[in-house]
Amino acid sequence: MVSTLLKGNAMSDDFMELSPLSDDSLVMSETLESWVLNKAEAWRDDYQSRYQEDHQEFYRLWRGVWSEEDGSKKSERSRFVSPNTAQAVEESCAELDMSMSPVLFDIQDDEIDKTSAQSQDIAKLRRLLKEDLEAAKIQPCISEAILIAAIYGSGVAEVELTETIEQKVAVQPAMDGAVQQVGIQMKERVQVRLRPLLPQNVLVDPNCTNVEDGLGIMIDEFVGAESIRMDQERGVYDDTVDVGTVAADDYNLSPDQESITYSEDRVRRLKYFGLVPRHLLEESQNAYDEEVYIEPLMAASEMDQEPSYFVEAIVVLGNDKLLSAVANPYMMQDRPIVAFQWDNVPSRFWGRGVVEKARTSQNALDTEIRSRIDALALTIHPMMAIDATRMPRGSDPTVRPGKMIKVNGNPAEILQPFNFGAVDQINFTQAAELQKMLQQATGAINASGMPAAAAAGAGTGAIAMTLGASMKRHKRTLTNFQTCFLIPLIQKAAWRYMQFDSEHYPVGDYKFNATGSMGLIAREYETSQLSFLLQTMGADSPLYPVVLESIVDNMS
């Protein structure tokens, strides 16, 4: 791929001067890696001060992991964590997953006079993109991003471009066509993949609310040292840099948030996607051999005008050492990150997820149940009051079946069993009410709530209103997901294939629409409404078979 080296500007000369620190020493000017590391440190501090503790608590509530920080009082002994929040997360994610059509997208053509060639290109693009997305296993990655959004409030994923070897069984003639030789045909191709990211591995500009705004976005994580070496061998990273290894002692970057099971032979890789000073990018490239280092592309919009101070770039650091620094090589100059909020929070990048909605009710429910468990320990297990002055020295007064207790005198006067009474049954009622509050906060319908409501004689209208309120909340999340995550993902994937695999993909300006279906709850709600409508008309009505067919289509 032909590339053009970026040109500098006059503003960079100001940053090349040396600043006197003392009479005997000088401080060198800023480098690209130091500029990126300073931003990473500032953005990491902002994340730790505003979101880290909350995200760690969300993770524990979802996994059902007890922590001393989540206790309501010091005398609390039980470590029970109710599964209601985990159930709400699963139900909400399942509803959103069911709302996605297996096709995921459709292509829209605004031109009225479409030629047959254009129609064929659209059909070909639709078919190729669908096949490549299925081959890259995009759908499970989307489901994982949805789960991350439900837990932490925002789902973030990286759109990776990798080289892969496509293999398929092929037959070719041999021995002048006398026999057919069966073998494997291999071909190198580019592939677009999706990699969901945890919030502790994502650093964003505190001033931005989405991926495209702000200075940039970073991915801070530990990776295997072998992956860095392989990329250096393929020419992706500079092979003259020895990054070495580092002990992965920062558990905050670990996926499980509790401990690091494997901490050797790892590299802390920092990927930066965003704006960097143009002169720092040029200086970093001049330090490497052109045959080894990839030259950046100049954006088309910058060819006919004076270069700006900042330029879109992709910078990769390994253990604080520069591995790669190129101007954004993508033709649309877009950042390879997609993100969406489960529920929008004004002027914030991180949204509001299911766990955050359920946190208050979950903590109150856990406190209620733990207090009952602690009280049961006092009422069920036998306790005894003793006269310590009349007990033999060194005796064990522990009560257990078949044990003999020696005393100096009448046992009736020395030993006396006692208890604290019975546990109040109001705990069950309070726990049930707190579960209802959790469902109201999250909008997730309990799997046992609807049958219980039906058995209690709840009217059809009340059940329909409950389902309608739940579907409205899921619809808002679905709109955010399709607008901010799914459609940008399809667009970026199509642009990558058009740019780097134009031999197979037709190149053109296409508009993509997300194709979705109804979730399971919405499908059942519509089926019930159609069933009621079917009862109002006779079998001889011309609309009767239409409504009946719609009912059958909604069934899975």
Could you give a short description of this structure?
The chain is an alpha+beta fold.
Provide a descriptive summary of the structure in words:
The chain has 556 residues and is of the alpha+beta class. It is built from 13 helices and 14 strands. The protein has helices spanning 32-63, 84-98, 116-135, 138-152, 225-234, 278-286, 354-380, 411-414, 426-442, 449-455, 460-500, 520-534, 544-554, and strands spanning 19-20, 26-27, 100-108, 154-174, 179-197, 202-204, 216-224, 266-277, 310-318, 321-327, 337-341, 383-386, 415-418, 511-516. The longest helix has 41 residues, at 460-500. Mean pLDDT is 78; it is low at 1-27, 289-302 and 450-463.
Topology, element by element:
Layout (H helix, E strand, L loop, with lengths): L18 E2 L5 E2 L4 H32 L20 H15 L1 E9 L7 H20 L2 H15 L1 E21 L4 E19 L4 E3 L11 E9 H10 L31 E12 H9 L23 E9 L2 E7 L9 E5 L12 H27 L2 E4 L24 H4 E4 L7 H17 L6 H7 L4 H41 L10 E6 L3 H15 L9 H11 L2
Antiparallel strand pairs: 1-2, 3-14, 4-5, 4-11, 6-7, 7-8, 8-9, 9-10, 12-13
Considering DSSP H and I runs of 4 or more, what fraction of the residues is helical?
Answer: 40-55%
Q: Helix and strand string, N-terminal first?
A: EEHHEHHEEEEHEHEEEHEHEHHHEHH
Low-confidence segments: 1-27, 289-302, 450-463
Strand order of the largest sheet: 6-7-8-9-10
**Rg from Cα:** 32 Å
Strands, count = 14
